[in-house]
Every structure is written in structure tokens, then in C-alpha cells.
Amino acid sequence: MREPLSPEMFDPMCPSSAFPIQIGGKWTGMLIRCLEHGPRRFTELRNALPAVTPKVLSETLRSMERDGLLTRTVHDENPPRVEYELTGLGRSLLDLIEASRAWAAEHFHTLLKARDEHDLESSP
């Protein structure tokens, strides 16, 4: 049995929208991390990422499937069970995501400070 996903797996102090390195859309990197240890259902992914709306989550998953990063499997059950799983191409991004996370842990506060200083100097 896989461990359940938790929203605590993502640092709320490091929002992806502020990060200068982005893989795919805003949520793609986080979804890759959610799928790192095996297939997950939509609800599991939604629970791990409470800030993403169901519509945006669906759009991101469709985009990732189109890019070949994951597969979507519909199991013939009632109601149908749908699972998402990383492909080899999707898995190839895990090292890059980990390197980006390490960089962020080391430099994120410096990045935010630089932005704040720039904004203060640039404001009228």
C-alpha cells in the first residue's frame, strides 16, 4: 500500500508561481512529485494540492498526458476508476525537479529579497 499524499509535502513558503525555474505549467512539477511513487487517482492528487482547482488540475493532467509525461488509465469498474502514472519521460524530470528544489532551498530568500529591493528602487 502506498503512503497517502499530504499537502505538507510542499513547502507553502516556496510557491511555484514565484520560482524562476518552471517545468511545464505551474502545477506540473508538483504533480510529477505526487506521482513519483506510483499511480494516483484524481482525488489523491487533489487532496495533496488543495490550492489547485479541480478544473485547473484536470487541464494540467490533460496537458501532461499530451506531452507524454503521464498516462491516464480508466479501469472498467462502476463507477470507473481513473489513475494517472508517470511515463519514462515524466520520470526523467525527477532529478531536474530535485535539483531545482535544492537550489530553491539555498537561494529562495535571496531571490525574494532581490525582487523586493528592485521593486523599491523602481517604484515612483
TrEMBL record:
Any Pfam family: HxlR
Alphabetic keyword roster: DNA-binding, Transcription, Transcription regulation
Top-level taxon in the UniProt lineage: Bacteria
Domain HTH hxlR-type: 14-112
Signal sequence region: none
Keyword Ligase carried by entry: no
Protein name: Helix-turn-helix domain-containing protein
